[in-house]
Amino acid sequence: MARFIFKLEPLLKARKLAEQMRQREVAELERERRAIEDRIRRQQSLLTETKAAMRGELTGLLAADDLRLHAASGMRIMHEADRMVVELAGVHQRTARAREKLIEATRDRRAIELLREQRFEAWKKRLAKAEANALDEMVVQRAARTDQTWEMNP
Question: Domain 9-120: which CATH class?
């Protein structure tokens, strides 16, 4: 039986590999985003704990050095959280660009797949037509032989 051969199969494989690479890039950026968001949440909880500890020290005798230490610690935590928010914004931008590249790679792959499907359907039609022609030819030959047999045996 005839076999369908798509001459652009290597190109389709290359497009699939490119799309998979883009998917990995997006996944890596998503992991990075989640990690930064987790760090921001930890910073926020640390800041909440520091504020609660500072509130606890506001009762009774106040030690200026302790208050200054807590305030400095709180400022450092807030500064680190701000830095992470900026880092997160950068990751969001890189993720958006990576998603655009993934969409483009998917579109490129899909275009070749559609071409493959179209060519496969055309091949199936040509094959069916060839089989129908061959069957018609067999019927005609059989009919011709049957006519010859009748002519020989009247």
Answer: mainly alpha
Q: Quote the Cα angle for 134-140-142, to 5°.
A: 100
In whole angstroms, give the CA distance from residue 33 to residue 27.
10
Element at 6 (helix H, strand E):
none
Q: What global pTM score does this model have?
A: 0.71
Instruction: Tell me what pLDDT residue 59 has.
Output: 67
CA dist., res. 124 & res. 113, Å (int):
16
Helix, strand, coil share of the chain (percent; to 5):
90, 0, 10
87 vs 141: CA distance, rounded Å: 80
pLDDT digits 0-9 by tens, 51-97: 787 776 666 666 677 777 777 888 888 899 899 999 999 999 999 99
Domains of the chain by residue range:
9-120
